[in-house]
Amino acid sequence: MSHIVYSKTYTTPRRPFEKERLDNELKLIGEFGLRNKREVWRVKYTLAKIRKAARELLTLEDKDPRRLFEGNAILRRLVRIGVLDESRMKLDYVLGLKTEDFLERRLQTQVFKLGLAKSIHHARVLIRQKHIRVRKQVVNIPSFIVRLDAQKHIDIAINSAYGSGREGRVKRKRMRAGAGGGADNDEDED
Length: 190
Fold this sequence. Notes:
Elements: H1 19-32, H2 37-58, H3 65-80, H4 91-94, H5 99-104, H6 107-113, H7 120-128, E1 132-134, E2 137-138, E3 154-156, H8 169-179
Antiparallel strand pairs: 1-2, 1-3
Helix pairs in contact: 2-3, 6-7
């Protein structure tokens, strides 16, 4: 039996009780409706890896084939997910990226910004309950990174109760109760 070795997706902070960092993380969790600190650390780790690669490439000469090839790959990838502006396609700008730039591109944030949800927390619930699709695919991962070309295609899922699918369980029950002589029903919609 072989064991699968997964790479780490986050790193814990070196100093666990730094007041400034704790406040900062809590602010990010509130602003972007994250579940826990690990979601913040995951994005920080991704950013750290990208910045490390950019820093390493900046030490090479301008015309170095590795710097040209790998540098372009990093820049193109960042522009495609919408973190970096096309007018700022230089490795120096990669070092200036912040955690917020990546959190902005999450599906949860995009659903809220597009007005499909009443709040950032409502957006997370809608995504988890499979009410949101990107193009034709239903996506139920709030941390899904939305590419620039897919941003216009975020919508309510076709077979969702919010879309043109059949009504939800509670609404169907109420309609039956209403049709059957208004039976006593005190179940909430939420």
